[in-house]
Write a sequence for this structure.
């Protein structure tokens, strides 16, 4: 935990460090494989989980959203620090379920990115803040990496 975090109230959320992730897995049981990674991220203070909702999309495309308590495969997360829930509206959940493929399950996870706290504090000290962020699509990153590899191979 950073010195700045130690001096803050533990319930204070750095509002400029909030993001969401949508993770897709083959089925609800497979969500259990995410639990150790999420627990480690919380235990090492890299993230704080603010909300987590599981989804299941059947083969007809019908989506069922499930609170953490209703998903047996994620039971171990019930002891994770903090109040989890209340950040996502029904509309948020509808939008988050759109990328799921039929016949899969997933989670939407709202986190405070505590790993970025030093950057946030540095910006705040000069009157700024982190104002945006976005995931770069894997296909775009892969394309750049291939191009880079080709350039290195040809000496370019």
């Amino acid at each position: 935990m950073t010195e700045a975090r130690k001096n803050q109230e533990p319930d204070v959320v750095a509002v400029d460090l909030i993001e969401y992730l949508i993770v897709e897995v083959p089925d609800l049981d497979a969500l259990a494989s995410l639990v150790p990674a999420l627990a480690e991220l919380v235990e090492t203070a890299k993230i704080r989980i603010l909300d987590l909702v599981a989804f299941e999309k059947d083969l007809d495309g019908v989506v069922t959203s499930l609170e953490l308590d209703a998903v047996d495969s994620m039971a171990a997360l019930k002891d994770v620090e903090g109040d989890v829930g209340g950040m996502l509206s029904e509309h948020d959940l509808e939008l988050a379920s759109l990328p799921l493929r039929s016949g899969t399950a997933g989670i939407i996870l709202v986190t405070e990115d505590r790993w970025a706290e030093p950057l946030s504090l540095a910006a705040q000290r000069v009157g700024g803040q982190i104002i945006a962020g976005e995931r770069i699509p894997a296909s775009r990153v892969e394309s750049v990496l291939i191009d880079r590899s080709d350039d290195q191979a040809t000496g370019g």
Q: What stands out?
A: The chain has one domain: 3-131. Residues 82 and 91 are 24 Å apart (CA to CA). The chain has five helices and four strands. The first helix runs from residue 3 to 7.
